[in-house]
Structure formats: structure tokens, C-alpha cells
Design brief:
Blueprint (H helix, E strand, L loop, with lengths): L2 H16 L18 H19 L18 H16 L8 E3 L8 E3 H23 L7 H11 L27 H8 L13
Antiparallel strand pairs: 1-2
Helix pairs in contact: 1-3, 1-4, 2-3, 2-4, 4-5, 5-6
Length: about 200
């Protein structure tokens, strides 16, 4: 399947999940340690803008990828950012380009299919983060989860996962017979059993 179709499904699912967030939910904790729902969505907003710039061939530094200000209507702001990334990936010619992704490497350029695959994997995982924070379901079909697992298994599990700014944490053990989505999560250092910490 076209990686852009997989990515679109994952991104639109994050929008669907956030449409269920009420005004008081933006301060909820998430599986991203130390981040509230608002902080996570600000991060995701910045990622959409950064990937959109990369797809357009714009040479960017890390400032283009910083968390985006959500303002008074975080859902509207996030939806617009998501749509900008999906629109940037849509032209057929984008698949022949190489992307500059300074969060991953400041020396390499990445083929479009690989770069969009990173965006896809990020939003599968963050979609789960959003769903867990809000106590709702993440609705992705088996094909989408399996495609995410293929990409997740290619992410090096080395010392780069130990730093404070690591994109993912070290892999966790996985229960026998785990479904594909759970394997994605444990491969990238998340526990499928995560629950919000008890309020003080």
C-alpha cells in the first residue's frame, strides 16, 4: 500500500480521537512521560509543520520542528497542522524527493517513502498515546498496525534511546501472542498496559 495512504489513516485517526477531548482534558497526563495532552499535541503540531516543510523541499533547522502554539482552540490548530502535512505529501511527485529531517540527522537526506514512514509510525504511536490519555479506542486496522510494526522493527535499539531527548525509549519485553499494535509499542519502549498515574 502507498505509504501516504497509511499515513493519512493514522493522522486522521489522531484527529478523530482529539475530537472527543473536552475542555478539561487538555491537562491530562499521557504515556509520554512528563507531557500533558496539550504538550503532546503541541509536539505533534510541530511535527506536522516540520514534515510539511521537508516535503516541500525547504531546508529547515530544528526550530521548524518545535512544538506549535495551540492557542484557544487546540483541536482547530492541530487539525490545520495535520491537513498541511497531508496536503504536502499528496502530490505524486513528492515520492521522488528526498527530505531533510534534522531531528534524525543533520547530515543525511531521506527518501520520501522512508521519511513519510517515520511520520506514519510517529502518528500511530502518538495516536495510541492520545487514546490512552483520553480513555478511548484507537481504531486502526490490522494492515495499518502491521505496516507500522515493520517500520518500528527497523528503529535502532541502542544508546541513542537513553538520552533525555530520545525519540523512543529502549524496547520492552512483549507477551507471547501479542497483537501487532502491542508489538509496535513495546518495540518503541511503551507499555501497552499504561494507565494514568493516580491524582494526588
Amino acid at each position: 500500500m502507498d505509504i501516504r495512504k497509511l499515513d493519512r489513516a493514522a493522522v486522521l485517526e489522531t484527529v478523530r480521537i482529539l475530537e472527543q477531548a473536552g475542555p478539561a482534558d487538555w491537562d491530562l497526563p499521557t504515556p509520554c512521560s512528563g507531557w500533558t495532552l496539550r504538550q503532546l499535541v503541541a509536539h505533534m503540531t510541530g511535527q506536522h509543520h516540520g514534515f510539511a516543510a521537508a516535503a516541500a523541499g525547504t531546508e529547515t533547522d530544528l526550530s521548524a520542528w518545535r512544538p506549535g502554539a495551540l492557542g484557544d482552540d487546540p483541536l482547530k490548530t492541530y487539525r490545520a497542522a495535520a491537513e498541511s502535512a497531508l496536503a504536502a505529501f499528496a502530490p505524486q511527485g513528492v515520492l521522488t524527493r528526498e527530505f531533510t529531517l534534522p531531528e534524525i540527522s543533520d547530515t543525511r537526506r531521506f527518501p520520501a517513502t522512508v521519511a513519510i514512514g517515520f511520520h506514519f509510525l510517529d502518528h500511530v504511536v502518538h495516536g495510541w498515546d492520545l487514546a490512552r490519555a483520553l480513555g478511548v479506542s484507537l481504531d486502526l486496522d490490522g494492515e495499518t498496525a502491521e505496516a507500522a510494526l515493520v517500520i518500528a522493527l527497523r528503529v535502532p535499539d541502542d544508546e541513542r534511546r537513553l538520552g533525555p531527548d530520545a525519540l523512543f525509549r529502549p524496547a520492552l519485553p512483549t507477551a507471547p501472542g501479542a497483537r501487532s499494535l502491542d508489538l509496535v509499542l513495546t518495540t518503541l519502549g511503551r507499555s501497552p498496559d499504561w494507565t494514568a498515574p493516580a491524582a494526588l
